[in-house]
Write a structure and sequence with these properties.
By secondary structure, the protein is an alpha+beta fold. The protein has one domain: Roll (CBS-domain). The chain is built from five helices and three strands. The chain has helices at 2-7, 13-16, 31-41, 59-89, 93-101, and strands at 23-25, 43-48, 52-58. The chain has a three-stranded mixed sheet with strand order 1-2-3. 1% of the residues are buried. This is CBS domain-containing protein.
Length: 102
């Protein structure tokens, strides 16, 4: 598409934008609704009122956001798993007995 616009002497950004690309308006649709589109196409373009494209959300953006949101819960799960293993295997030595004696 862009190559055609450039060859025709119209190297303007608006002339190069493919209107069939996946876009969504942040004011009318929640991000959760467009995640399947991001997974399918690898990205979606963010559109503001008057159809002006103002940004992009990619699979990498979703991955970073998931990491930020999920990390504390994953860490707590790992801590819980480790504590359960210590308790079940009796590997806490005198520490467990000292705590339970109080």
């Amino acid at each position: 598409m862009f190559g055609q616009c450039f060859r025709m002497g119209r190297a303007e950004l608006e002339a190069a934008i493919d209107e069939t690309l996946t876009t969504f308006d942040l004011h009318t649709r929640p991000l959760l609704e467009v995640i399947p589109g991001i997974i399918k196409h690898g990205y979606v373009l963010i559109r503001r009122p008057k159809n002006k494209i103002t940004g992009i959300v990619t699979k990498k953006d979703l991955g970073r956001q998931l990491l930020d949101l999920a990390s504390p819960f994953v860490l707590l799960g790992e801590i819980e798993h480790g504590l359960r293993a210590l308790i079940e295997n009796g590997d806490m030595g005198g520490s467990w007995r000292a705590c339970s004696a109080r």
